[in-house]
Amino acid sequence: MAKRFPAAYYVERILAHDRLGLSRAITLVESTLPSDQELAREIIQQLLPFSGNSVRIGITGVPGVGKSTFIEAFGTFVTREQQKKLAVLAIDPTSQRTGGSILGDKTRMETLAGNKQAYIRPSPAGKSLGGVARSTRESIILCEAAGFEVIFVETVGVGQSETAVHEMVDFFLLLMLAGAGDELQGIKKGIMEMADAVVITKADGQNLQKARAARAEYQSALHLFPRTASGWSPKVAISSALENTGITEVWQTIEAYLETVQNGSYFEQKRQHQNLHWLHESIRQTLLDRFFAKPEVKETLPELEKKVLQGEVSAFAAAEELLKFSN
Ligand SMILES: Nc1nc2c(ncn2[C@@H]2O[C@H](COP(=O)(O)OP(=O)(O)OP(=O)(O)O)[C@@H](O)[C@H]2O)c(=O)[nH]1
Ligand SMILES: [Mg+2]
């Protein structure tokens, strides 16, 4: 195990905008060791007053839609043109299966990886969605305290992880391919509904016409969704990360959104609601972890599973029996 320092070390290093200190603190946040988690909690508590000063942007889309390439181009724009410090985090609970992580493919983010204004943190491997969502959420706080002004949270649009990301960002960006059909893209209506903007990717060459058509199509589809309390109506843009087009527009859209929601109380309210969401989520997660870590539960669960499979006991009765160990 790597060396551990007192909480003050991490707090000081992070406030001094030191990357190594930040990386070490994120390692604690991702750790499952109780002593590390306690240290992480202490650090976060101390840094909380220095967090919140960033724009948190969620970026999602099915595998191959062009997330990495887009983040590379958009991130370069944010750091170079907008002169903002950018942190890129990832939620990728599928990494157990692929053995890597979505940001592990730094190959497509070479420019950004070598950019002093950018900090890229790959998703921790082999964690459950609940676990990785929690650590990402806490990493956001650490990155903000370390002076990062824009945070990207990337996720693969295949399952539940976009809901988790939606609950931790200010702006939710959905990347889509032209002409692939919603079915093929695995994009459920629920995800479309969460989007503050849709970007049709790879709008270049032969694809440009299709992308334009798709933009019109999605724009009218989005109009059918009920308006949210934000007062914002979702926008559709087209972009080619390869040709570096449409990138400025996406940034302008985000700025327009912020102007809309920061005008009233919506922005703050949304963050407050998200905090409450994470409070409840933490309680649920902690209770579950504690429950399943109990020796009696570990011992009895396999037997009960067998009985349920064989139809000897109902699932409900089995659960009730196991829950006897819950206090
Ligand atoms: N023509 C064109 N191709 C692109 C563009 N952006 C990405 N691609 C290509 O599309 C493929 C997938 O791009 P990625 O950026 O790796 O996509 P991703 O969404 O990160 O994929 P996963 O990491 O597997 O989820 C690559 O072969 C890219 O070169 C673009 O703007 N135009
Ligand atoms: Mg990728």
UniProtKB/TrEMBL annotation:
UniProt EC number: 3.6.5.-
InterPro entries, sorted: GTPase_ArgK, P-loop_NTPase
Keyword Hydrolase: yes
GO MF annotation: an example: GTPase activity
Domain of life: Bacteria
Record family assignment: Belongs to the SIMIBI class G3E GTPase family. ArgK/MeaB subfamily.
Entry protein name: Methylmalonyl Co-A mutase-associated GTPase MeaB
Species annotation: Adhaeribacter soli
Classification lineage: Bacteria, Pseudomonadati, Bacteroidota, Cytophagia, Cytophagales
Gene name for this UniProt entry: meaB
